[in-house]
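HUMAN: Mind sharing a backbone?

ASSISTANT:
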Amino acid sequence: MSAAGTWLATACGRAEHQRDRSGRRKTSTPPTYACRVASTRDELEADLLANWAPAQLAVYGDFLQTEGDPRGELIAIDLAGVATPERDVRRSELLTAIVGGSALSWLHRYVRFKLELGFVDMKLGEVGRGAGHDAEQALLDGPLGRYLRTVTIAGGEAHIRAGVANLACRHHRWLRTLSIHYKTSASRSLKPIISRKQTAALIAATPNLETLEVDRDVFHYDGPARPVFTGFVHPNVRAPKL
């Protein structure tokens, strides 16, 4: 039996063997399976947030498979570590099961992202408006958007603002790394691109963020680059690179 399955069986066993003070079995209705599963998943995810390790991922992925969540098998495939044509085909089938075949083709066409160990690495910012922008929104609002782990925002001032706004208006409990690649040329303003209010919203939306890196690509301009943030005081980001 899987580690997650063992935990669940033990918990259920304890519930089944409860007795009243006279020693007789209780006949009250036990908690529903749905409530038990939700509680178990919450605990496993809390453990994974606290300890991102292969063994913990394996337990989490094992449990997801018992729930019929395709991410569980994707985690198992990635933990196996050996790429084969058969596994590549299976990965595609599982991704299709999560987002749908036509939607997956559309996302791959317009959005740079990858799903690894059941979590998403994504690049935001350079698609502008139109179909690319719509595809970004669809990924963020869809079943994969809640599992962002690494995000890169790239482009000029407008791209950076849009990318940060996209993150700040959603909750990202799994996001650990945010990289901003800022491309600038002739702007001589020293006013931060991201306001204090938007910075606070971004911090609130990413409670488990650990790394923030801002990289500037300054061209055709010899003066100081416009800052992205005034400051970034996050409880879990010890040394943001601004």
Summary: The longest strand covers residues 148-155.
